[in-house]
Write a structure and sequence with these properties.
The chain is of the alpha+beta class. It has a domain at 50-131 and 146-306: Beta-galactosidase, Chain A, domain 5 (Distorted Sandwich), CATH 2.70.98. Helix content is 24%, strand content 24%. The chain has 17 helices and 40 strands. A hairpin with a 2-residue loop joins strand 31 and strand 32. Helix 3 packs across helix 16 (670-680), helix 5 (386-393) packs across helix 6 and helix 7 runs parallel beside helix 10. It starts with a strand and ends with a strand.
């Protein structure tokens, strides 16, 4: 059967549709559905180190020493409503609430040379250009747009480590390609620590840039080759004057000078072009050296065949999409599902060269002898569903990711696992030590092939690092005092869950002493539960609860990016214990019902960038991660059918086609992983457990390619938009009497059948 390969990038462009002779089953992955514009419509291969995309403005992180709030919209560099494109840079984060990167921006122009990017209001004063969504085409590993001011067609594609540009010029004897080494996302004047550029010959340029931003010490090397020799080149150094500059003033470094260095550099390369002439650029990255960047380029793009590189990258995407083949009720649902698949496979990102060298946390060069090294670990988000999804359908990759975390620990001067890993740095963003949840989950599911004893030691060392974010107070008191930490309650809750994960790992490894220690620590959530009001609440150093407290407020109440209503349900390791303290199902169910039906006034989240009205249903904040498991808690009550209706309601309200299709940050794939699991009909409420909670599948049917050659088939009977309730569910022909499926059953494959109904039992 011939199927159509339809590609949308999460933004409503003039979407491209094209058919291939191969069998393909997916439809319309979109790229930029987030309300806050934190995804990008560029070219990349799955988990690629190069994520090549247009950037649409140059909003600085700070102005006159104060944070520029509007910069938050540009976490991924691209805003759908912007009228201009500044250029095309090679590194981006997808769906994060903080940012960095935007390295090595390239922009083609014709006419008078301009090295300033200009402004959105006056683009003619710089090298940026107006553009229209009518000329944008976005497909996996391909992006095309018309740069209207200079009538240049820009096309982008990639390999894992190489960005491949193709620019079609008009006839001109003043054609330029600008390389802006000052540009960056979340940029500020002091961010560039140093930049070096070396012109090797009339078509090859190499160099590096070191920045100090979210990642404190980040160095990235590059190699750049043109398909056509440039006739001349030059640069401008915008670096601030310093007392000592050596004796380089003997040279004119502004024109045709091959050895450049400074904090703030922009370069240009001049060409004569005929009408419709194409100039291609291959731009390779390396975390180690320019030599390695050249080797990456030679190995991954040995020729100048743009279409071949594009096709090979799209073949990689097709291979990934084939891991889950679904039939849905509508084309819109198909778009949502494969958009989620696309997003889930953007990160973590490969962080090593083709020779397996990479820069470690110690800033030395290491060799990844038996694994692929990864970075971009947004662990506060992705431990919840993305890594559990990888354990199911990407076990080899997740094994490599855990190896990368252990390598990070081995290189850490603090002897800690990663919290937010970024390019041989830890950004220390958000709370918890959730790498232990990823490691434990991988080991509980027999995904990790490394030294289990050493992995457990790394988890324990991280969880007992007393100087990190009040771990000492947490160990001594069983909670973090409110006076010590502004997110004392949520951090206590997150530590407690991570401790439970360590306990499960210790039990698997027959370390009863460690199991008992961390199992006891995992009950620390009870220490911040106020039984009088039935909410988690900040506790003071003296053991009393904070008096001035608002369960709806998201700011200044002891929680990070959430309020007491959502966080009071964050006990994924012990839903039964939580329900008991809340008064049993009789009290808990109405409480949970009200979360989804009450109204949360804007005043209670107006100071929190990551929470917007679009991501809220009642007081349930789906647009941020801490409550992603909450809809499944009904499964532990006497009304599990409410999980079914609630999950389907969330899917309908929070996942749409178009420019505002997601109500919050995708956060490196977590929002999308939630959708994939939920659409299939089950969810990992507590990673590291052996249990999936069942919900209400949105698929008509699905074939899931599990690791190790196993296949899970999901099918539904009487599937319809109104049939959100599950009348019966069968696994391999056996009727299930509880709304749960074990990991052992799931991993062995088989057939999961849901009988759907419009009425609950």
């Amino acid at each position: 059967m011939k199927r159509t390969y339809i590609i949308l990038f999460l933004i409503s462009f003039s979407f491209s549709i094209f058919a291939q002779n191969r069998l393909v089953k997916y439809a319309k992955p979109i790229i930029g559905t987030e309300k806050m514009g934190h995804t990008y419509p560029g070219a990349t291969v799955p988990f690629g180190a190069v994520q090549l995309s247009p950037d649409t403005d140059t909003i600085p992180y700070a102005y006159q020493g104060k944070y520029t709030g509007s910069v938050y919209q540009y976490c991924a560099g691209y805003q759908y409503n912007d009228p201009t494109i500044v250029g095309f840079s090679h590194t981006h984060f997808s769906g994060t609430g903080h940012s960095d990167l935007g390295d090595f921006l390239i922009m083609p122009t014709v006419g008078k040379l301009q090295l300033n990017p200009g402004t959105a209001d006056y683009p003619e004063n710089g090298y940026r250009s107006k553009f229209s969504h009518r000329t944008e085409i976005a497909e996996p590993n391909y992006y095309k747009v018309e740069l209207e001011d200079d009538h240049i067609k820009a096309e982008l594609t990639t390999t894992t480590r190489v960005g491949f540009h193709q620019y079609t010029f008009p006839k001109s004897n003043q054609a330029h390609i600008i390389l802006d080494l000052m540009h960056g996302i979340y940029n500020y004047e002091e961010k560039n620590v140093w930049t070096f550029v070396r012109i090797e010959n009339d078509s090859t340029v190499v160099g590096y840039r070191e920045t100090s931003g979210w990642a404190r010490t980040r160095t990235l090397y590059f190699a750049m080759k043109f398909s056509k020799p440039f006739k001349s080149y030059g640069s401008k150094n915008y670096s601030p004057k310093v007392p000592y500059r050596g004796f380089w003033g003997k040279f004119d470094q502004t024109e045709n000078f091959p050895d450049l260095a400074g904090k703030q550099l922009r370069l240009y390369f001049d060409f004569d072009t005929e009408e419709g002439e194409k100039i291609d650029i291959k731009f390779a990255l390396s975390p180690v050296s320019t030599k390695n960047a050249l080797e990456n380029m030679a190995k991954e793009t040995p020729n100048w065949d743009f279409n071949q590189v594009k096709q090979e990258g799209q073949n990689l995407w097709e291979k990934e999409f084939e891991k889950i083949q679904v039939k849905m009720l509508s084309d819109a649902d198909m778009v949502n599902f494969y958009t989620a698949m696309y997003h889930a496979f953007l990160s973590p990102t490969v962080y090593m060269d083709v020779n397996h060298e990479y820069k470690g946390l110690d800033q030395n060069v290491h060799q990844a002898t038996d694994f692929t090294n990864y970075t971009t670990f947004s662990l506060w988000d992705t431990y919840r569903a993305l890594h559990p999804l990888f354990n199911l359908i990407q076990p080899e990759r997740n094994n490599d990711m855990v190896h990368s975390m252990i390598a990070h620990y081995d290189q850490s001067a603090l002897h800690m696992l990663p919290v937010w890993s970024n390019s041989a740095n830890d950004d220390w963003c958000m709370s918890g030590y959730h790498s232990v949840a990823v490691i434990a989950d991988a080991m509980m599911k027999d995904t990790y092939t490394g030294n289990a004893k050493h992995a457990l030691e790394a988890c324990i060392a991280t969880a007992t690092h007393r100087s990190y974010e009040n771990i000492g107070d947490y160990i001594d008191k069983g909670y973090i005092p409110s006076e010590k930490n502004g997110t004392s309650v949520s951090t206590t809750l997150e530590y407690a869950f991570d401790d439970w994960c360590i306990a499960q790992l210790a039990k698997k490894l027959n370390r009863q002493d460690i199991y008992e220690t961390f199992l006891k620590r995992s009950e620390n959530w009870k220490n911040v539960f106020d039984s009088n009001i039935k909410f988690m609440r900040p506790k003071l150093e003296d053991g009393s609860f904070k008096k001035d407290f608002d369960v709806l407020q998201t700011d200044g109440q002891g929680f990070i990016e959430g309020n007491a209503w959502n966080y009071s349900l964050f006990v994924p390791q012990d839903p039964n214990g939580l329900i008991k303290l809340m008064g049993g199902s009789k009290k808990f169910v109405p409480h949970l019902d009200s979360l989804f039906t009450m109204h949360l006034p804007d005043q209670f989240f107006e100071h929190t960038e990551d929470i917007t009205r679009d991501g809220i249903i009642g007081n349930y904040v789906h647009g941020n991660e801490p409550a992603h498991h909450v809809a499944y808690l009904y499964d532990w009550t006497n009304q599990p059918w409410k999980t079914q209706s609630t999950v389907r309601m969330i899917i309908k309200k929070q996942y749409h086609n178009g420019a505002d299709g997601l109500g919050g940050n995708d956060d490196c794939g977590q929002m999308s992983a939630w959708y994939i699991f939920s659409a299939l009909g089950f969810y990992p409420v507590a990673p590291s457990s052996n249990q999936y909670a069942l919900g209400s599948p949105a698929v008509v049917s699905a074939t899931v390619q599990l690791g190790r050659g196993k296949i899970l088939k999901v099918s539904t009977k009487n599937q319809a938009d109104e049939n959100v309730f599950v009348k019966n569910v069968y696994f391999n022909g056996k009727k299930l009497d509880k709304p749960f499926l074990s990991d052992e059953e799931m991993a062995s494959g088989g057939e999961l059948v849901f009988e759907m109904s419009s009425k609950h039992p």
